[in-house]
Here is the input.
Amino acid sequence: MFVENGHCLKTMGNRAMELAPNSGLFLPPQWIQKDLFTPATTFLSAEFSNNFLGELRESAPVANDAMEISASEVRFLQSRLLQELMDPDPFSALVIEGFLMGAVALAHQRSLPRGSVPPAWLRRASELLREDMKEPKSLTEIAALVGVHPAHLSKEFRRWFHCTPGEYLRELRIESAKEKLQCSEFTLADISLETGFSDQAHFSNVFRKQTGFTPSSFRRNFRKTSSSSKP
Here is the structure.
């Protein structure tokens, strides 16, 4: 649960916790709880399936206990989750899954990775996203292929690349589309299919949200021609 405005007093047996604005809390499903909200309280609540929690416990034993989420993480999650929920696209499910897995994992361990190079399995995960850009694998499938738990993949991916796998995939497709808009004569419909978008309308919508340009205006302003490279 993420509280946006107001307060929530959450009672769990003899234990009570107050959630103020920009606070978040993870509770295992077996906990019996009672909530008391002040007037005009707004919040965002996400419920995990038993299968999800069972997998999460394999790599995060703390999932059996309550975990508070830091204020900075809550502000980030609220903003990004609401953005995905209010204006969803085919990538949103993967993006949201990554956000939630990462939030629970980061609540358990906030330390940064050591060293300057991502581990080999994480580099392989990013390669799989690049290789399968048009028909991407799910987070669970990628995790299985590189031999780690999905929650661990989500957490480490965000630490090293500063985004979720879903956001990474979305950016890969946009960068590929930019190159085609600048350097080819492909139609917008062709580019949308080549970069894995469902249709031209979907491509145009995502491209505009990511770049601030429509594909047509980006092509007009940034097209690379042989004459532009001459002195």
